[in-house]
């Protein structure tokens, strides 16, 4: 194993606290949303941070597999991750939906790309068999 880089962030106060990255770039209050939204509009939550990270990682994986599939131009593509915080009898759990917009490819190629990206994306690997992840190809 070869470590390419590490990132570090520290939370104080849990879901009603604060998170800051070691370099200070991330510096946010954390608050648990309720049915009316966030109690503090300038705060974030772990699921929002996870959605940002997962969508970015998955988009990078799409770029890698596109080259492997001889797709030279993904155009103005995007990945939107929705992370759901759910509860059931056994407690809380997460669920993810990844909506990938790939405007330059047909349906078959797009589905092949998102499935291949899901195979190699480090966040997909980390969540595999742990949470449900839904993959959607968005078309014009």
Can you offer a commentary on this structure?
The protein has three helices and six strands. The chain has 140 residues and is an alpha+beta fold. It has a three-stranded antiparallel sheet with strand order 1-2-3, with no helix packed on it. Helix 1 packs across helix 2 (107-120). The chain is globular and about 50 Å long.
- DSSP helix count? 3
Count of extended strands: 6
Low-confidence stretches: none
Q: N- to C-terminal separation?
A: 41 Å
Structural class: alpha+beta
Describe the biggest sheet? 3 strands, antiparallel
Strand order of the largest sheet: 1-2-3
Fraction in helix: 25-40%
Rg over alpha carbons: 17 Å
Kindly list the characteristics that best describe this protein:
alpha+beta, 3-stranded antiparallel beta sheet, 3 helices, 31% helix, 140 residues
SSE arrangement:
Layout: E1 9-12, E2 18-21, E3 27-29, H1 46-68, E4 78-88, E5 91-101, H2 107-120, H3 122-127, E6 132-138
Helix pairs in contact: 1-2
Give a nutshell description of this structure:
31% of the residues lie in helices and 29% in strands. With 140 residues, the chain is of the alpha+beta class.
């Amino acid at each position: 194993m070869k470590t390419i880089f590490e990132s570090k962030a520290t939370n104080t106060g849990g879901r009603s606290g604060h998170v800051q990255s070691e370099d200070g770039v991330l510096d946010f209050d954390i608050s648990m949303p309720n049915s009316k939204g966030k109690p503090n509009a300038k705060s974030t939550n772990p699921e929002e941070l996870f959605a940002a990270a997962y969508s970015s990682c998955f988009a990078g994986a799409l770029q890698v597999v596109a080259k492997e599939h001889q797709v030279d131009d993904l155009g103005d593509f995007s990945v939107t991750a929705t992370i759901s915080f759910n509860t059931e009898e056994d407690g809380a759990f997460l669920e993810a939906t990844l909506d990938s917009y790939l405007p330059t490819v047909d349906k078959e190629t797009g589905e092949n790309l998102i499935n291949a990206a899901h195979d190699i994306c480090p966040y997909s690997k980390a969540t595999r068999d742990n949470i449900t992840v839904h993959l959607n190809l968005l078309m014009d």
